[in-house]
Design a protein that fits this description.
Blueprint: H1 7-15, H2 22-38, E1 43-48, E2 52-59, E3 62-70, H3 74-84, E4 96-99, H4 101-107, E5 110-118, E6 121-129, H5 145-155, E7 160-165, H6 172-186, E8 192-196, E9 207-210, H7 219-226, E10 233-236, H8 242-253, E11 257-261, H9 267-276, H10 281-287, E12 288-300, E13 317-327, H11 331-338, H12 343-351, H13 363-372, H14 378-385
Parallel strand pairs: 7-11, 7-12, 8-9, 8-10, 10-11
Antiparallel strand pairs: 1-2, 1-6, 2-3, 4-5, 5-6, 12-13
Helix pairs in contact: 1-2, 2-3, 7-8, 8-10, 9-12, 10-11, 11-12
Length: 391
Protein backbone atom coordinates (compact mmCIF):
# COMPACT_ATOMS: atom_id res chain seq x y z
CA UNK A 1 0.00 0.00 0.00
CA UNK A 2 1.53 3.41 -0.95
CA UNK A 3 2.76 5.59 1.85
CA UNK A 4 0.05 8.07 2.96
CA UNK A 5 1.23 11.45 1.66
CA UNK A 6 0.17 14.78 3.10
CA UNK A 7 -2.57 16.42 1.04
CA UNK A 8 -0.32 19.30 -0.05
CA UNK A 9 2.32 17.04 -1.53
CA UNK A 10 -0.23 14.76 -3.17
CA UNK A 11 -1.99 17.74 -4.73
CA UNK A 12 1.30 19.22 -5.95
CA UNK A 13 2.52 16.01 -7.57
CA UNK A 14 -0.85 15.26 -9.16
CA UNK A 15 -1.18 18.78 -10.54
CA UNK A 16 2.30 18.61 -12.05
CA UNK A 17 1.95 15.15 -13.55
CA UNK A 18 3.18 15.09 -17.14
CA UNK A 19 4.74 18.55 -17.03
CA UNK A 20 8.47 19.04 -17.32
CA UNK A 21 8.76 22.83 -17.07
CA UNK A 22 11.65 23.98 -14.82
CA UNK A 23 9.30 25.74 -12.39
CA UNK A 24 7.08 22.69 -11.93
CA UNK A 25 10.00 20.28 -11.63
CA UNK A 26 11.48 22.58 -8.98
CA UNK A 27 8.20 22.44 -7.04
CA UNK A 28 8.17 18.63 -7.22
CA UNK A 29 11.67 18.44 -5.76
CA UNK A 30 10.96 21.02 -3.05
CA UNK A 31 7.69 19.37 -2.04
CA UNK A 32 9.34 15.94 -1.83
CA UNK A 33 12.20 17.20 0.33
CA UNK A 34 9.86 19.18 2.59
CA UNK A 35 7.67 16.11 3.11
CA UNK A 36 10.74 13.99 3.89
CA UNK A 37 11.89 16.43 6.57
CA UNK A 38 8.41 16.65 8.09
CA UNK A 39 8.17 12.88 8.28
CA UNK A 40 11.69 12.60 9.78
CA UNK A 41 12.93 10.46 6.90
CA UNK A 42 16.64 9.69 6.88
CA UNK A 43 16.87 9.28 3.09
CA UNK A 44 14.89 10.10 -0.05
CA UNK A 45 15.36 7.89 -3.13
CA UNK A 46 14.54 9.06 -6.66
CA UNK A 47 14.68 5.86 -8.72
CA UNK A 48 13.90 5.63 -12.45
CA UNK A 49 12.39 2.35 -13.64
CA UNK A 50 11.44 1.16 -17.10
CA UNK A 51 8.08 2.94 -16.84
CA UNK A 52 8.20 5.55 -14.04
CA UNK A 53 10.16 7.58 -11.49
CA UNK A 54 9.64 6.13 -8.03
CA UNK A 55 10.12 8.32 -4.94
CA UNK A 56 10.72 6.46 -1.68
CA UNK A 57 11.40 7.62 1.89
CA UNK A 58 13.45 5.69 4.42
CA UNK A 59 11.42 5.86 7.65
CA UNK A 60 12.73 4.23 10.81
CA UNK A 61 15.27 2.33 8.74
CA UNK A 62 12.83 0.92 6.13
CA UNK A 63 12.23 2.21 2.61
CA UNK A 64 8.58 3.12 2.03
CA UNK A 65 6.97 4.08 -1.31
CA UNK A 66 6.04 7.77 -1.35
CA UNK A 67 5.03 8.66 -4.90
CA UNK A 68 5.20 7.59 -8.54
CA UNK A 69 5.85 10.08 -11.34
CA UNK A 70 5.87 9.60 -15.09
CA UNK A 71 9.07 8.33 -16.69
CA UNK A 72 9.37 11.57 -18.70
CA UNK A 73 10.00 13.55 -15.50
CA UNK A 74 12.89 11.39 -14.30
CA UNK A 75 15.80 13.13 -16.04
CA UNK A 76 14.48 16.61 -15.19
CA UNK A 77 13.95 15.80 -11.49
CA UNK A 78 17.44 14.27 -11.17
CA UNK A 79 18.83 17.21 -13.13
CA UNK A 80 17.19 19.66 -10.71
CA UNK A 81 18.82 17.91 -7.77
CA UNK A 82 22.20 18.11 -9.53
CA UNK A 83 21.75 21.85 -10.13
CA UNK A 84 20.92 22.40 -6.44
CA UNK A 85 24.02 20.41 -5.43
CA UNK A 86 26.23 22.21 -8.00
CA UNK A 87 27.07 18.95 -9.77
CA UNK A 88 27.94 18.53 -13.45
CA UNK A 89 24.57 18.21 -15.15
CA UNK A 90 26.08 17.07 -18.47
CA UNK A 91 27.81 14.08 -16.84
CA UNK A 92 25.24 11.30 -16.58
CA UNK A 93 27.70 8.44 -16.91
CA UNK A 94 29.58 8.74 -13.59
CA UNK A 95 28.54 8.89 -9.91
CA UNK A 96 28.62 12.35 -8.28
CA UNK A 97 28.17 13.69 -4.76
CA UNK A 98 27.28 17.09 -3.35
CA UNK A 99 25.29 19.08 -0.79
CA UNK A 100 21.89 20.75 -1.11
CA UNK A 101 22.91 23.96 0.64
CA UNK A 102 19.85 26.12 -0.04
CA UNK A 103 17.37 23.31 0.64
CA UNK A 104 19.20 22.56 3.90
CA UNK A 105 18.80 26.19 5.01
CA UNK A 106 15.14 26.19 4.02
CA UNK A 107 14.16 23.00 5.83
CA UNK A 108 16.64 22.97 8.73
CA UNK A 109 18.36 19.67 7.90
CA UNK A 110 21.72 19.06 6.26
CA UNK A 111 21.18 17.28 2.93
CA UNK A 112 23.76 15.35 0.90
CA UNK A 113 22.91 14.03 -2.56
CA UNK A 114 24.59 11.30 -4.57
CA UNK A 115 23.78 10.29 -8.13
CA UNK A 116 24.45 6.96 -9.80
CA UNK A 117 23.98 5.84 -13.43
CA UNK A 118 21.63 2.89 -14.06
CA UNK A 119 20.26 1.21 -17.17
CA UNK A 120 17.08 3.29 -16.79
CA UNK A 121 18.89 6.60 -16.29
CA UNK A 122 20.44 8.33 -13.30
CA UNK A 123 19.10 7.65 -9.82
CA UNK A 124 19.62 9.93 -6.84
CA UNK A 125 19.65 9.44 -3.10
CA UNK A 126 19.38 12.34 -0.67
CA UNK A 127 20.64 11.73 2.87
CA UNK A 128 19.07 13.94 5.54
CA UNK A 129 21.24 14.49 8.58
CA UNK A 130 19.70 15.30 11.94
CA UNK A 131 19.26 18.94 12.81
CA UNK A 132 20.09 20.47 16.17
CA UNK A 133 16.56 19.84 17.46
CA UNK A 134 17.05 16.06 17.02
CA UNK A 135 20.39 15.79 18.81
CA UNK A 136 20.62 13.02 21.42
CA UNK A 137 22.45 13.24 24.73
CA UNK A 138 24.06 10.13 26.15
CA UNK A 139 21.43 9.87 28.87
CA UNK A 140 18.48 9.77 26.47
CA UNK A 141 19.78 7.24 23.96
CA UNK A 142 17.92 4.52 25.85
CA UNK A 143 20.96 2.47 26.86
CA UNK A 144 20.48 0.02 29.76
CA UNK A 145 21.64 1.32 33.15
CA UNK A 146 24.37 -1.32 33.60
CA UNK A 147 25.74 -0.64 30.12
CA UNK A 148 25.73 3.12 30.79
CA UNK A 149 27.76 2.56 33.95
CA UNK A 150 30.36 0.53 32.04
CA UNK A 151 30.49 3.02 29.15
CA UNK A 152 30.86 6.07 31.37
CA UNK A 153 33.55 4.28 33.36
CA UNK A 154 35.51 3.61 30.16
CA UNK A 155 35.08 7.24 29.10
CA UNK A 156 36.70 8.45 32.31
CA UNK A 157 39.95 6.80 31.20
CA UNK A 158 42.69 9.05 29.81
CA UNK A 159 43.87 6.57 27.21
CA UNK A 160 42.66 3.53 25.30
CA UNK A 161 40.21 2.80 22.50
CA UNK A 162 36.41 2.73 22.63
CA UNK A 163 35.04 1.14 19.47
CA UNK A 164 31.48 0.96 18.15
CA UNK A 165 30.18 -1.61 15.70
CA UNK A 166 26.96 -2.32 13.88
CA UNK A 167 25.68 -2.14 10.28
CA UNK A 168 25.11 1.10 8.38
CA UNK A 169 22.15 2.99 9.83
CA UNK A 170 22.44 1.47 13.31
CA UNK A 171 23.10 4.83 14.98
CA UNK A 172 26.83 4.50 15.65
CA UNK A 173 27.62 8.12 14.77
CA UNK A 174 24.72 9.37 16.92
CA UNK A 175 26.10 7.41 19.87
CA UNK A 176 29.67 8.65 19.36
CA UNK A 177 28.48 12.26 19.14
CA UNK A 178 26.52 11.76 22.36
CA UNK A 179 29.69 10.42 24.02
CA UNK A 180 31.72 13.41 22.85
CA UNK A 181 29.09 15.89 24.05
CA UNK A 182 29.11 14.07 27.41
CA UNK A 183 32.89 14.52 27.64
CA UNK A 184 32.63 18.23 26.84
CA UNK A 185 29.93 18.69 29.51
CA UNK A 186 31.78 16.66 32.15
CA UNK A 187 35.34 17.73 31.38
CA UNK A 188 35.41 20.74 29.08
CA UNK A 189 39.16 21.18 29.53
CA UNK A 190 40.04 18.19 27.36
CA UNK A 191 41.26 18.86 23.83
CA UNK A 192 38.92 16.84 21.61
CA UNK A 193 39.50 16.52 17.84
CA UNK A 194 37.76 14.50 15.13
CA UNK A 195 38.43 13.31 11.61
CA UNK A 196 35.21 12.29 9.87
CA UNK A 197 33.71 11.47 6.47
CA UNK A 198 31.42 13.36 6.42
CA UNK A 199 30.97 15.68 9.40
CA UNK A 200 27.31 15.01 10.22
CA UNK A 201 26.83 17.46 13.10
CA UNK A 202 28.76 20.47 14.32
CA UNK A 203 29.70 19.96 17.97
CA UNK A 204 30.48 22.88 20.26
CA UNK A 205 33.83 22.72 22.06
CA UNK A 206 35.30 20.19 19.60
CA UNK A 207 37.69 20.66 16.65
CA UNK A 208 36.20 18.75 13.70
CA UNK A 209 37.71 18.00 10.30
CA UNK A 210 36.51 16.12 7.23
CA UNK A 211 38.65 13.51 5.49
CA UNK A 212 38.63 13.02 1.74
CA UNK A 213 39.27 9.36 0.91
CA UNK A 214 41.51 8.98 -2.13
CA UNK A 215 43.15 12.37 -1.53
CA UNK A 216 46.14 13.43 0.53
CA UNK A 217 43.77 13.94 3.48
CA UNK A 218 42.42 10.45 4.12
CA UNK A 219 41.83 8.93 7.57
CA UNK A 220 45.36 7.56 8.00
CA UNK A 221 47.23 10.71 6.91
CA UNK A 222 44.84 12.99 8.74
CA UNK A 223 45.21 10.95 11.92
CA UNK A 224 49.00 11.16 11.81
CA UNK A 225 48.75 14.94 11.58
CA UNK A 226 46.15 15.12 14.36
CA UNK A 227 48.57 13.40 16.72
CA UNK A 228 50.85 16.43 16.34
CA UNK A 229 48.03 18.76 17.44
CA UNK A 230 48.34 17.78 21.12
CA UNK A 231 44.92 16.04 21.34
CA UNK A 232 43.62 14.24 24.41
CA UNK A 233 40.52 12.70 22.83
CA UNK A 234 40.42 11.64 19.17
CA UNK A 235 37.37 10.52 17.20
CA UNK A 236 37.99 8.71 13.90
CA UNK A 237 34.87 8.31 11.79
CA UNK A 238 35.70 4.74 10.77
CA UNK A 239 38.61 2.30 10.85
CA UNK A 240 38.64 1.06 7.26
CA UNK A 241 42.16 -0.23 6.63
CA UNK A 242 45.20 -1.69 8.42
CA UNK A 243 47.10 1.62 8.36
CA UNK A 244 44.33 3.51 10.16
CA UNK A 245 43.89 0.61 12.60
CA UNK A 246 47.59 0.66 13.42
CA UNK A 247 47.76 4.43 14.00
CA UNK A 248 44.59 4.35 16.11
CA UNK A 249 46.01 1.56 18.27
CA UNK A 250 49.28 3.44 18.67
CA UNK A 251 47.38 6.58 19.71
CA UNK A 252 45.34 4.60 22.26
CA UNK A 253 48.54 3.25 23.77
CA UNK A 254 50.29 6.63 24.02
CA UNK A 255 47.96 8.67 26.19
CA UNK A 256 44.96 9.36 23.94
CA UNK A 257 41.34 8.30 24.38
CA UNK A 258 40.26 7.12 20.93
CA UNK A 259 36.70 6.69 19.63
CA UNK A 260 35.95 5.03 16.32
CA UNK A 261 33.61 2.69 14.45
CA UNK A 262 34.36 -0.58 12.69
CA UNK A 263 32.05 -2.92 10.81
CA UNK A 264 31.72 -6.36 12.42
CA UNK A 265 28.90 -8.72 13.29
CA UNK A 266 29.31 -8.47 17.06
CA UNK A 267 31.33 -6.80 19.81
CA UNK A 268 33.83 -9.66 19.88
CA UNK A 269 33.82 -9.77 16.09
CA UNK A 270 35.63 -6.41 16.21
CA UNK A 271 38.57 -8.14 17.86
CA UNK A 272 38.78 -10.64 15.01
CA UNK A 273 38.65 -7.82 12.43
CA UNK A 274 41.51 -5.98 14.11
CA UNK A 275 43.60 -9.14 14.33
CA UNK A 276 42.94 -9.73 10.62
CA UNK A 277 44.15 -6.17 9.96
CA UNK A 278 47.49 -7.10 11.50
CA UNK A 279 47.15 -5.61 14.99
CA UNK A 280 49.07 -7.81 17.44
CA UNK A 281 46.99 -9.49 20.14
CA UNK A 282 49.14 -8.11 22.97
CA UNK A 283 48.57 -4.57 21.68
CA UNK A 284 44.79 -5.08 21.55
CA UNK A 285 44.64 -6.29 25.14
CA UNK A 286 46.40 -3.12 26.27
CA UNK A 287 44.65 -0.65 23.97
CA UNK A 288 40.98 -1.68 24.08
CA UNK A 289 38.79 -0.20 26.83
CA UNK A 290 35.48 -1.47 25.48
CA UNK A 291 33.42 -2.34 22.40
CA UNK A 292 29.81 -1.27 21.95
CA UNK A 293 27.69 -3.32 19.54
CA UNK A 294 24.31 -1.81 18.65
CA UNK A 295 21.27 -2.13 16.41
CA UNK A 296 18.15 -0.02 15.83
CA UNK A 297 14.78 -1.78 15.59
CA UNK A 298 11.40 -0.19 14.95
CA UNK A 299 9.06 0.49 17.86
CA UNK A 300 5.43 -0.53 17.66
CA UNK A 301 3.24 2.54 17.14
CA UNK A 302 1.55 3.62 20.37
CA UNK A 303 -1.00 5.81 18.58
CA UNK A 304 -2.77 2.92 16.83
CA UNK A 305 -1.57 -0.13 18.80
CA UNK A 306 0.36 -1.27 15.72
CA UNK A 307 -2.76 -1.38 13.52
CA UNK A 308 -1.55 1.32 11.14
CA UNK A 309 -2.32 5.04 11.07
CA UNK A 310 -1.15 8.25 9.43
CA UNK A 311 1.40 8.87 12.18
CA UNK A 312 3.16 5.57 11.42
CA UNK A 313 2.52 5.77 7.65
CA UNK A 314 0.36 2.65 7.89
CA UNK A 315 3.29 0.45 8.99
CA UNK A 316 2.31 -0.17 12.62
CA UNK A 317 5.73 1.14 13.71
CA UNK A 318 6.83 4.61 14.77
CA UNK A 319 10.28 5.53 16.07
CA UNK A 320 13.15 3.21 16.85
CA UNK A 321 14.58 1.39 19.83
CA UNK A 322 18.30 1.04 20.54
CA UNK A 323 19.54 -2.47 21.39
CA UNK A 324 23.15 -2.77 22.54
CA UNK A 325 25.80 -4.81 24.32
CA UNK A 326 29.12 -3.62 25.71
CA UNK A 327 32.24 -5.79 25.87
CA UNK A 328 34.59 -4.80 28.68
CA UNK A 329 37.98 -6.46 28.67
CA UNK A 330 38.71 -8.37 31.87
CA UNK A 331 41.56 -10.82 32.57
CA UNK A 332 39.73 -13.85 31.14
CA UNK A 333 38.89 -12.03 27.93
CA UNK A 334 42.44 -10.70 27.57
CA UNK A 335 43.86 -14.19 28.03
CA UNK A 336 41.52 -15.53 25.35
CA UNK A 337 42.57 -12.74 22.95
CA UNK A 338 46.24 -13.53 23.55
CA UNK A 339 45.45 -17.16 22.70
CA UNK A 340 43.73 -15.83 19.54
CA UNK A 341 40.54 -17.67 20.44
CA UNK A 342 37.71 -17.58 17.90
CA UNK A 343 34.81 -15.15 18.12
CA UNK A 344 32.38 -17.70 19.56
CA UNK A 345 34.76 -18.43 22.46
CA UNK A 346 35.26 -14.73 23.14
CA UNK A 347 31.50 -14.13 23.13
CA UNK A 348 30.92 -17.01 25.53
CA UNK A 349 33.40 -15.45 27.97
CA UNK A 350 31.91 -11.96 27.59
CA UNK A 351 28.34 -13.17 28.10
CA UNK A 352 29.18 -15.02 31.29
CA UNK A 353 31.19 -12.45 33.17
CA UNK A 354 30.56 -9.48 35.34
CA UNK A 355 27.23 -10.32 37.03
CA UNK A 356 27.15 -12.59 40.11
CA UNK A 357 24.92 -15.57 39.41
CA UNK A 358 24.37 -14.58 35.78
CA UNK A 359 25.94 -13.23 32.62
CA UNK A 360 26.36 -9.79 31.15
CA UNK A 361 23.34 -8.60 29.18
CA UNK A 362 23.72 -9.32 25.47
CA UNK A 363 22.13 -7.68 22.47
CA UNK A 364 20.00 -10.82 22.06
CA UNK A 365 18.78 -10.75 25.66
CA UNK A 366 17.93 -7.06 25.22
CA UNK A 367 16.01 -7.92 22.05
CA UNK A 368 14.04 -10.67 23.82
CA UNK A 369 13.19 -8.29 26.68
CA UNK A 370 11.97 -5.63 24.22
CA UNK A 371 9.62 -8.14 22.57
CA UNK A 372 8.36 -9.31 25.97
CA UNK A 373 7.57 -5.72 26.98
CA UNK A 374 5.58 -5.23 23.77
CA UNK A 375 7.96 -2.61 22.34
CA UNK A 376 8.70 -4.45 19.10
CA UNK A 377 8.11 -7.82 17.43
CA UNK A 378 10.06 -11.01 16.78
CA UNK A 379 9.76 -10.45 13.03
CA UNK A 380 11.31 -6.98 13.39
CA UNK A 381 14.18 -8.46 15.43
CA UNK A 382 14.78 -11.05 12.70
CA UNK A 383 14.64 -8.37 10.01
CA UNK A 384 17.37 -6.34 11.68
CA UNK A 385 19.48 -9.00 13.42
CA UNK A 386 18.76 -12.20 11.53
CA UNK A 387 18.04 -15.50 13.25
CA UNK A 388 19.99 -16.18 16.39
CA UNK A 389 22.42 -19.07 16.11
CA UNK A 390 22.00 -21.86 18.62
CA UNK A 391 24.39 -21.73 21.56
Amino acid sequence: MPLPIRAELQHTLSALEGSSSPERVSRIVDASLREAVERSASDVHFEPTNTALEIRFRLDGVLQPAATLTKELAANVIGRLKVLAELLTYRVDVPQEGRLVEAAKRYGADMRVSTFPTIHGEKAAVRLFEGAERVFDLENLGLPAALMTDLQGAMRERSGALLLTGPSGSGKTTTIYACLRHLVAQDGGRHIVTIEDPVEQVLEGISQSQARPGSEFDFARGLRSLLRQDPEVIMIGEIRDPETAGIATEAALTGHLVFSTLHAGSACGVIGRLLDMGIEAYLLTSALRGILNQRLVRRLCESCNAKGCDRCAGTGFHGRLLLAEFAVLNDRLREAILRKSDTKTLESIMHNMGVPGGGRATIWSEAAAAVERGLTTNSEIERVMGIKESE
